[in-house]
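Annex B, item 7. Sequence and structure tokens for protein A, then protein B.
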Amino acid sequence: MSTGRKIWTVMTRTAVYVFNKYHFSVNTFSGSAMMCIGDVAQQSVERYHGLSEGYDWSRTARIAVIGSILGSVQHIFYRSLDNRYPSRDLLTISKKLFIDQTLCTPLIIALFIYGLGFLEHKTLDKINEEFKDKCAMIFLVDCAVFVPTQYINFKFLDPKYRLLFTNMVSIMYDTFLSYIKYTHDILKSMERQNNNNIKN
């Protein structure tokens, strides 16, 4: 066996060992990491278009905190879902997709918006207003991305890789979440300011 193959074998076995031993931690960390990467990517877009002057690392830190909470919730949810519905037939997968989109997704959206709102010291009225403004759009995008993704997930993957696969796929979705949470508000604020300037 070549040196390169030996190194690859050792790295692969180590990764599998760490994943199996620290399953919950890996799922939580990967969810948080992907959300941070999505936020940094979106902030790069904002800088490119002149919407911000630099990176807001405190914003990314808040995203990391919420990402770890969401990762924990999803880990528990999918483990429970797989224990309740272990089969891979079409009817069972359809049930799992329905439960995922009607129970888990609304909960995740609420935790995302309300969690970040509280970390940003917003009032409850402001957070409620933001939730009403953004919830439907986030839900529709989530359905478009994760219904086909989760079908593949539920049909072909081992349950222990369920959330890791979801986290890896969700990088573009996480970028969208950062957009709808922050860039969307920047653009709306600029639009209001332009309208006020026109009126004056």
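Protein B:
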Amino acid sequence: MGMVHGESLTWEEIVPFSSPPPPQPRDWSLCPVNHFPHFFHSRAIQHTCMLLSYLLKHKADKETVIMKLKELESSMRSGRKLFRLGNMVHAMVAARRTTQLPDLVPRLCLTASNLSRVLYFICDTVLWVKSVGLVPDIDKQKWRNWATKCYYYSLLMNLTRDLYEISWQMEQEAQRKKARKENSSQCDKQDQDLFSFHADGLQPFLLLLYCTLRKHPPLLLDTVKNLCDLSSPLNQLGIYKTNPGVIGLCGLLSSLVGILTVASPHMKLKH
């Protein structure tokens, strides 16, 4: 496969015990528009403010602090709108690129995800036009609902791709364990359970899942990021209601993962 089915880095290789190699210069102009560090910094600050506001809302003497946090959150949200046009263009380019992927499932999932993102940014642009008063008669609630649905479908497609990758990697890991067992004269009970991908019981499955994700950190980080991002549209669409604290925490974790993948490009899941 053309994404993470090649040789991947392990946690030990990423965080070596020996002194790390000197940092290599990065060309930020090669990064996708929606992966600029400033974008993730703004998003991280926004969700941190949301989380802190929720944690402080029951404290009687923190009204001023909460007000300032909400103002900062609003400013960060507005600042991220500056990336709207760049994000839309990047999503269109990414959709065209993913149509050329050799594997059917990733090709369909990623193309559908990027097209959904394009629709999301179009809806978001309409909402921005409404907010600045250029077209005041726009149905804000309807367009916001459409934008949320497009974002939700995009995340579902990304998660489908992640689950497909995890399943494929687990099967490969199980086959490697089985091959090592057949070439070895001794094998303990744990290995016997581990090499069987379809083994009964939760413990062998979780053990195989742990070994797989441990050897493929980019896949783990991408899955965590998409799961965290899912909390906001689930709440807005009424599918799973939660509170601003959970949304803020999930958004903060997602932003930190995004910052990590920008700072360390080898941690980003490749197509």
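Comment on protein B: The CA atoms of residues 175 and 195 lie 6 Å apart.
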